[in-house]
Amino acid sequence: MPDLRGGVQVILLFFTVRVYFFRDSDRKMRLEKFLSESGLASRRDAKRYIFDGRVAVNGERVLIPGTHIAPRRDAVTFDGEPVRGQPRQIHLMLNKPAGYVTTVRDERGRPTVMALVGDISERIYPVGRLDLDTEGLLLMTNDGNFAHRILHPSHEIQKTYIAWVEGHPNRQTVQRLREGIEIEDGITAAAQVDQIERREGESQFRVVIHEGRKRQIRRMFHAVGHDVLHLKRIGIGSLSLGRLPIGKYRPLTPTEIESFGRSV
């Protein structure tokens, strides 16, 4: 009787490969996560693009974030253009000048921070926001998990700013800022607020917050009667702007990237 063991092993190997292939091709992920990992935008902006009807899967517009796709089988487009797989990951620190909008494109035609990284061939995007008139440390990437670790409120990443404000806030006012101040969208979380310098008609403060509300520091000082004259972000987590010239960028080191931990 012939020995069929070799043939059986080949057949079993064939079916094992087929099963693995189909399982791998059926692996699914949320649409906004796929868009983020492709370098299109942060997860937050990707959700907005989906809501706006700019994303389609297999020719059909998807309007609900959280929709699951199989990246190996489904064709995803953004504004009619195909969205490719994960590119080489880029992590940059930019010293943003005042006068630049922190967005990929601006409907009003104002200059955006993308003009400062125009020699980067990969599609990257800003991580979070800095106001038009605020300068300093801005991270840019195409790594969705990295951006998520920094932006998600549960991680409470601290951001450090230097602010020049009108007048001379007294001790009671500074303590109010530290404990939390009422602004339009609620009471702010506790903050570190320390005076650094004082000159005629102005005071300089070092402010550390972990929230990411729009124009938060400007609104905090406005609420206590001392408008911000100049604002610069100098740190995010353990990352420091250092002596990076204004308008210039540099890649983050592996240690700096790892300092923000791993995605959960």
Structure characterization notes:
This protein has helices spanning about 5-25, 30-35, 45-50, 145-150, 170-180, 215-225, 255-260, and strands at about 30, 55, 60, 70, 75-80, 80, 90-95, 125, 135-140, 160-165, 180-185, 185, 190-200, 200-210, 230-235, 240, 250. The protein is elongated. The chain is built from seven helices and 17 strands. The protein has three domains: about 1-85, Roll (Structural Genomics Hypothetical 15.5 Kd Protein In mrcA-pckA Intergenic Region, Chain A), CATH 3.10.290.10; about 90-155 and about 240-260, Alpha-Beta Plaits (2-Layer Sandwich); about 160-235, Alpha-Beta Plaits, CATH 3.30.70.1560. Helix content is about 25%, strand content about 25%. A hairpin with a 2-residue loop joins strand 15 (about 230-235) and strand 16 (about 240). The longest helix is centred in the N-terminal third of the chain and has 21 residues, at about 5-25. Helix 2 crosses helix 3 (about 45-50). The strands form four sheets. Strands 7, 8, 9, 10, 13, 14, 15, 16 and 17 form a nine-stranded mixed sheet that branches. It has a four-stranded antiparallel sheet with strand order 3-2-5-6, with no helix packed on it. It has a two-stranded antiparallel ribbon with strand order 1-4. The chain is of the alpha+beta class.
Features:
Alpha-Beta Plaits; 3 domains; elongated; Structural Genomics Hypothetical 15.5 Kd Protein In mrcA-pckA Intergenic Region, Chain A; single chain; alpha+beta; 7 helices; nine-stranded mixed beta sheet
What's the quick description here?
The chain is an alpha+beta fold. The chain has 7 helices and 17 strands.
